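Annotated sample (chain length 312).
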Amino acid sequence: MSPAVHADSKHALRIAQFQIHFCVLLWGFTAILGKLISLPALALVRWRMLIVALALLFVPKVWRGLCAISPRLLLGYALVGFFVALHWLGFYASVKLANASVAATCIAIAPIFLAVIEPWVTRRKFRWHELWIGVGVVPGVALVVGGIPDEMRLGVLVGVVSAFFCALFGALNKRLVDHADPFTVTAIELGTGAVILWLIASIIPHEGSVFDLPNLHDAFFLAVLSIACTLVPFTLSLVALRHLSAFAVELAVNLEPVYAILLAIPLFGEQRDLDVSFYLGVAIIIGAVLIHPVLERRRPHRVETNVAGAVD
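Output written by the structure step:
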């Protein structure tokens, strides 16, 4: 690799890292907004995805992208949208069953799943250090679980299932991300997810009705959640994913509970539900986030081209 190409690659990597951490900052508000919105989890996620998809239909670039995309690729993004819907549904169910801090922290399990799923999906080499870092997060999550009341344990289980779907759609997006415009991808994935959740709501008994209409209070926070904390970071994360592995992105997302906890404490007084072990667990999770880029810098620099054609 020539020095100029190497310098451009490093610059693109730094920009991508900044982009993903900005996304994580915005995502830190999602658990808080989920707590503020009174709608059941299924209705909340349906409206979140639908509002984003409808907003993107006013962007001419999205229509051009939809006309140019192949049926096979369209089906691939629709499948990703299905997994995004399941992830968000589990996440907000965890918020309702436990609290915002616990739901956000459970996502820290996702890198373990990604360490195995991403190499298989993107057909790149398996990296043992990613698995060890992911496993290293487990004691932190165990401490988090140990620091909550018994009645919140179901929320933890649902949160871990949500983390699995988070890893799955992250790996699939890594494989497909270079094949279409990020705005178009976002419109397809979230639009598909909204349709699927409405179908689920019409078939499976659940809290609320098939078409829950938000009140003015919920409508305001849904708009903030959908545009500022979904449309912007979801699309920007797809841009960053072109230069980062899905594992690196998901590990950075582990900082989301830090932001969620800092916001939840003054807003909801959630520190009353949490003890010292919870915060020790969070410290371990943060340590895992910080050690990954150090290990990556020590690896010999080389260009790995996966199925998506991205530099890893």
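Annotation: Residues 301-312 have pLDDT under 50 and may be disordered.
Annotation: Residues 61 and 73 are 17 Å apart (CA to CA).
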